[in-house]
Amino acid sequence: QVQLVESGGGLVQTGGSLRLSCAASGRTFSSYAMGWFRQAPGKEREFLARITWGAPSTYYSDSVKGRFTISRDNAKNTVYLQMNSLKPEDTAVYYCASGPTVYNYNIWGQGTQVTVSS
User: Fold this and answer.
1) Is 24 exposed, middle or buried (0-12, 13-18, 19+ CB in 10 A)?
2) Would 81 disulfide with which of 20, 55, 92, 118, CB 3.0-4.6 Å?
3) Cβ distance 101 to 33 under 8 Å?
């Protein structure tokens, strides 16, 4: 089983930046893809970005493309989400997730709150 722990959330002003981290432990070899998602109050969970542990492969949703960057540190089993040019509508709980394919995420972290003030 893979365990995921997110960190790096907080309060930032519009236009600011944050870097989220997701540390993976346990049977990480069973994980092929790592993704970042978010959920704002009253809204459905939204996919943001994904990266694979093998050959580098990333994919972004249109809502964050060009502002957010997903990356990984294999030695630390950690995936990052660099978030720039933050907007109030980016306010949400951010989750990282792990899965056997880029379309199936079955392990989730506890989430970290990101609040962007106007």
Assistant:
1) buried
2) 20
3) yes
